[in-house]
Specification:
The chain is α/β, with parallel strands linked by helices and 401 residues long. It folds into 3 domains: 177 residues, 3-Layer(bba) Sandwich (FAD/NAD(P)-binding domain), CATH 3.50.50.60; 119 residues, 3-Layer(bba) Sandwich (FAD/NAD(P)-binding domain); 74 residues, Enolase-like, domain 1, CATH 3.30.390. Helix content is 25%, strand content 31%. It is built from 11 helices and 27 strands. The strands form 7 sheets. The protein has a 5-stranded parallel sheet with strand order 3-2-1-7-20, covered by helices on one side. Strand 4 and strand 5 form a beta hairpin. Helix 1 packs parallel to helix 8. The longest helix has 18 residues. Bound molecules: flavin-adenine dinucleotide. Flavin-adenine dinucleotide binds next to helix 1, strand 2, helix 8 and strand 23. The site of flavin-adenine dinucleotide has 36 residues, from helix 1, strand 2, helix 8 and strand 23.
Length: 401
């Protein structure tokens, strides 16, 4: 296949900027354009709910050094929204009406925070967290006298709760599920997070959903009200698939359908990061991952695909979180409600590694405040290792690899 003369990337987040970097690293020296809606150079999101919100930093990490784009000949256009893709003409149209032609196109448009379909969901005071502006503006409200209601006990909700408590705010977290993070981690590990936040003074309203927002907080399905002058929604994110859909690309699995090598249904277009519903060879099904490492790694991988290497993306999901003095990493993909949980260490002391086994094979591992076994854990999860609960509880993990 002839090397493309012109590559356009839509979305200047982590996935898009990583793809641009990887293309140059692999020696691609033709035209390369990166179009992004935000006004900032590409940056990473994790600090928005951690260091920036905590007040330890005023800006998140950039994906590349400020001069990278110029020195590497990447035509970075910021504050530019792409409004249309015309696959037949191999052209994208931006909000100024300008057209940009491509031989290969990469979609990396990320996600938008969800809202709730309940009354008053359009009240101006409701906050979500996706951009540096969201984070700085939310931080400004997290004072010692603030009453903060967080809707959603997922990763973002839990991290915002931790940051809000660190500023001394009064914090209530509401979720219709009975434990935080239960869907990902199951009941026993979910309970660790419930207790962590309770120990830091968070009030939980679990097992009851929001029925409506009010000017003074939220009304719950049981009729009770939770007062708050700051209300934050952490109820998940919706992948930005509109452009792809309008262009006639196949959607599936909640995102843009891509094959094992990250190509969409249109042969010249790839999709990566939060929007990519990837036909994952390891899992034999579509997997869409909304995590930092996936955006970065798919960005690197897609460069190879575009330049003619027909290799499947086989990396297993990885993510991390920091809340108060708890740090964790999770590798793999488990069904936490059904897989067998094995714990090495102490859930009580929040010093443990959790494993999830299915039919004797390791699906996922999560180390909490334990940092010595990362390499072994990655190798065991990558290998889908056949291990016994006893081995996981007590053997030297590197010996199992
Ligand atoms: C607050 C927060 C904290 C997080 N913390 C963690 C964490 O601790 N660990 C972890 O593993 N993951 C974390 N994540 C998730 C992780 O950061 C994301 O999965 C990752 O950033 C996705 O990268 P992306 O490039 O696909 O999308 P994004 O980073 O969302 O980038 C997409 C970009 O495309 C732009 N765009 C969209 N449509 C258009 C268009 N039509 N034209 C031009 N530009 C467009 C958007 O404005 C955006 O800048 C966090 C996410 C958030 C929001």
């Amino acid at each position: 296949m002839a090397e493309p003369q012109r590559i356009v990337i839509i979305g200047s987040g982590l996935a898009g900027a990583s793809a641009a970097g990887a293309l140059r690293e692999r020696g691609y020296d033709k035209k390369l354009m990166l179009l992004g809606r935000e006004a900032h150079q590409p940056y990473e999101l994790p600090a928005l709910s951690k260091d920036v919100l905590l007040g330890n930093a005023d800006e998140p990490h950039r994906v590349h050094e400020p001069d990278f784009y110029e020195t590497h000949g990447v035509d970075l256009r910021l504050g530019v929204e792409v409004t249309e893709i015309r696959p037949g003409e191999r052209v994208v149209v931006d909000s100024d009406g300008a057209t940009h032609s491509y031989d290969r196109l990469v979609l990396a448009t990320g996600s938008t925070p969800r809202t709730l379909p309940v009354p008053n969901a359009d009240l101006p005071g409701l906050r979500t967290l996706r951009t540096v502006e969201d984070s700085l503006s939310l931080r400004g409200t997290l004072t010692a006298t603030a009453e903060v209601v967080i809707v959603g006990a997922g990763w973002i909700g839990c991290e915002v709760a931790a940051a809000a408590r660190s500023h001394g705010a009064d914090v209530t977290v509401v979720d219709p599920v009975d434990l935080p993070l239960r869907r990902v981690l199951g009941p026993k590990v979910g309970e660790v997070f419930r207790r962590l936040h309770a120990d830091h003074g968070v009030h939980w309203r679990l097992g009851v959903g929001v029925e409506a927002f009010t000017p003074h907080g939220v009304r719950l399905a049981d009729g009770s009200e939770v007062a708050g002058d700051v209300v934050v929604l952490g109820v998940g994110a919706k992948p930005n698939t509109d452009l792809a859909e309008k262009a006639g690309l196949t959607l599936a699995g909640g995102g843009v359908a891509v094959d094992a090598a990250l190509r969409t249904s249109s042969p010249d277009i790839c999709a990566i990061g939060d929007i990519a519903a990837h036909d994952h060879p390891r899992y034999g099904r579509r997997v869409r991952v909304e995590h930092w490492a996936n955006a970065k790694d798919q960005g690197a991988h897609v460069a190879g695909t575009i330049l003619g290497r027909d290799e499947p993306y086989t990396t297993v999901p990885y993510f991390f979180s920091d809340q108060y003095d708890l740090g964790m990493e999770y590798r793999g993909l488990a069904d936490a409600e059904h897989d067998q949980l094995v714990v090495r260490g102490s859930l009580e002391a929040r010093d443990f590694t959790a494993f999830w086994l299915r039919e004797g094979r390791l699906q996922a591992a999560m180390n909490v405040n334990q940092w010595d076994d990362g390499v072994a854990l990655q190798a065991l999860v990558d290998a889908h290792a056949a291990v016994s609960p006893d081995q996981l509880r007590s053997a030297t993990l590197s010996d199992l690899v």
